[in-house]
Design a protein that fits this description.
heterodimer; A: 132 residues; alpha/beta; 5-stranded parallel beta sheet; B: alpha+beta; 51% helix
């Protein structure tokens, strides 16, 4: 199978708490040369960075300051220039239905357990690589 | 999760429907919040229910609650992020944030608040999550409705403000209409008597002074007349009678009327209009508009220049455009935008600043358009576009 050298996959992360699973994800990204990760401090910044840097994947909590995670997801999905960006929504709330309605590609319930975050992210990035 | 439902679903659906009806009835937002937490408490058997809304600064407060003291609820203040659940733990006396189930309240695609219930493990079920979800949806819809009401109220009050402003302007112009005429009449009357030596012979210098007052009064009358005209135009009292008019004739009349000022400014007047061009308009009004534009062109065109009047059918030929071109300093884009607004004056050539506003109002009454074409470094071209009369 011919596989081209994948370009760098970038993730933009907007979480209200950097707990262990998130830190683990960060270490995972930093250890891999083909992955890059950046953190935003609020929804407005995330929106700005999304538009300027066009990340491959955005990971967001629902309850974040500025623009909330669901509104952020809607904005990303409505923007034709960001059609290639996947969105993963996290929350303490059982809000998967609402996340999907907002256009999320995946949803994880907090508290995050084990490697669920890393595995979900791998899935989202892997899907994208196949599409390319 | 395998547990038996505590109650049959009939009463639950009945209750949810009743809540829906209550929310879509003209409840206030506060009532809506109360209904939501009460229903959540009874349908879910929850020990505590809390409804949070965020304010414009992103701070979250409790707006309705069951099972929580009013003091504790009113003291609660947190920022809007996922750590909220830990904060709630302290308030609601639960050890783990996982004792709560929360659902976001959405309005206009944004999370405005949360509906949170404290449910012990035995009562956690998919069915309860669905009920909570339904209640959150209903509350969201009511929030949205409340937001819409607020917007409507805001618009209504701004509209009322504009109406008041309009009425005040009308009143001011009414003053002009009724109260200035008399004193101006008195001035003119006495001027007339003085100039006719009724009060004794005048010295040459006195006569000159009176002539200057005369000119000033004429000017004053023109300002009053313009203000009255504007008032009449704005209040819809003015009507125009449009019929097919041979344009060349109207232009010649207009040129005749400004021949004297043109000669004094040493400005040449030229016209190039087809003899058969006929447009649908009120001849007198068109002449009024043209005279004003020509007067402007002469005043601003500088001495010794030329003012050119052109007329031609447009393409498509439903309309025709008359153009008045001067050789003055031209019009900047900002001026072009503003100059047809009432009371905008440029330079200090006198006038009330209403001339162009009146010209525009009159032109539009005749179903036409007036404007100034893309500005060039030198020279301005004003245009009047009107419908063509059918070919005879």
């Amino acid at each position: 199978m011919v596989s081209e050298v994948p370009s760098i996959a970038t993730a933009l992360v907007l979480v209200s708490e950097r707990d262990e699973p998130v830190r683990k994800l960060e270490r995972y990204f930093l250890a891999d040369a083909s992955l890059a990760v950046e953190f935003a401090s609020d929804g407005n910044e995330a929106l700005e960075l999304a538009r300027s840097k066009r990340p491959t994947l955005i990971i967001t909590d629902i309850l974040v300051p500025g623009v909330d995670g669901l509104a952020l997801c809607r904005s990303i999905k409505r923007n034709p220039e960001l059609s290639q960006t996947s969105v993963l929504v996290l929350s303490h709330m059982p809000a998967e239905l609402r996340a999907r309605e907002a256009g999320a590609d995946a949803f994880l319930r907090r508290p995050l357990t084990g490697d669920s975050l890393i595995e979900t992210v791998q899935g989202l990035l892997g899907l994208r690589a196949i599409a390319e | 999760m395998g547990e038996r439902e505590p109650v049959g679903e009939g009463p639950t659906l009945h209750r949810l429907t009743a809540t829906s009806r209550a929310l879509s009835d003209k409840s206030t937002v506060a009532e809506m919040l109360r209904i939501t937490v009460e229903t959540a408490e009874s349908l879910l058997g929850a020990d505590k229910v809390v409804l949070l809304l965020q304010d414009d600064e992103g701070r979250v407060g409790i707006r309705a609650a069951r099972g929580v003291s009013i003091e504790a609820a009113s003291r609660f203040d947190a920022s809007f992020d996922e750590s909220l659940f830990s904060r709630l733990g302290t308030l609601l006396g639960a050890d783990l944030p996982t004792s709560f189930v929360g659902m976001p309240l959405l309005a206009r695609g944004e999370v405005r608040g949360l509906l949170v219930v404290l449910l012990d493990k035995a009562k956690r079920s998919e069915r309860n999550e669905w009920v909570l979800s339904a209640l959150a949806d209903q509350a969201s819809a009511a929030l949205e409705h409340g937001l819409q009401e607020a917007t409507n109220e805001d618009l209504a009050s701004r509209l009322a403000e504009l109406h008041t402003k309009g009425r005040r302007q009308e009143q001011a112009l009414q003053v002009v209409r009724h109260d200035l005429g008399t004193p101006i009449g008195a001035i003119r009357g006495y001027l007339n008597l003085l100039e006719r030596d009724v009060y004794g012979p005048l010295t040459p210098r006195q006569r000159t002074a009176l002539q200057r007052i005369d000119i000033a009064v004429l000017h004053l009358e023109a300002l009053v007349e313009e203000a009255l005209e504007m008032s009449r135009l704005y209040s819809g009292e003015v009507t125009v009678a449009c019929q097919p008019v041979v344009v060349r004739r109207v232009i010649e009349e207009a040129l005749g009327m400004i021949e004297l000022p043109a000669r004094e400014a040493r400005v040449r007047l030229r016209a190039d209009v087809p003899a058969d061009l006929s447009i649908l308009c009120d001849a007198g009004r068109l002449r009024q508009v043209l005279v004003h534009l020509l007067d402007n062109a002469i005043k601003h065109g500088g001495t010794g220049g030329e003012v050119l009047v052109l007329g031609a059918r447009d393409d498509p030929p439903e309309t025709a455009t008359l153009r008045i071109c001067d050789e003055g300093p031209g019009i900047s884009p900002e001026m072009a935008h503003e100059m047809f607004e009432p009371y905008k004056k440029f330079g200090d050539r006198g006038g009330s600043g209403l001339g162009l506003a009146i010209a525009r109002a009159v032109t539009e009454l005749m179903g036409g358009q007036i404007g100034v074409e893309a500005s060039v470094p030198k020279g301005a071209t004003f245009y009047v576009r009107l419908p063509c009369a059918q070919q005879p």
